[in-house]
Write the structure tokens for this entry.
Amino acid sequence: MAMTSSPEGTTETSGGGTRNAIMKKESDHSLRQHLIYLLTDGGAHAKFDDAIAAIPAKLRGQKPAGMPHSPWMLLDHMRIAQRDILEFSRNPKYKSPAWPEGYWPPTEAPPNAAAWNESVKNFRKDLKSMENLIADPKTDLFAKIPWGDGQTILREALLVADHNAYHLGQLVNVLRLLGAWSNA
């Protein structure tokens, strides 16, 4: 078996080693792009920014009849949970909030417009941080997180995407019931 040296390190060149390394690198890049798409593009569901833009300030704290959450409660819950997953993924000293009370805002309505805007801003910022973590080729998506109990960055990224999609769907339903969502 022949070995060659390159700026990326030593590569096996016989037996298809170089080809396999290239295919692995391409697959890795493709997986990272698919994860980022899943987190940000909406795909088969509404996009975060479209839903947030549809919420007039007067409806932010309104709960439709028969629904347990207001737009504010859903937005801030998404922010808190996403932050929790992100921090767990990158910070060995991070401590999660108490369940369930630490994952929901204490009120049905935001205290003021600034609190709403701050929650939206921090949701976007943390989502971008998760994207950056995924996009970084130094991040091993498959390695177990040392301070976890079997979780990987891949699992945590999928958890963020799943959780956000679930609650975004709830938010769209709340907006429909409040008469603020007209998209099909």
The chain has one domain: 30-177. Strands lie at 3-6, 9-12. DSSP finds five helices and two strands in the chain.
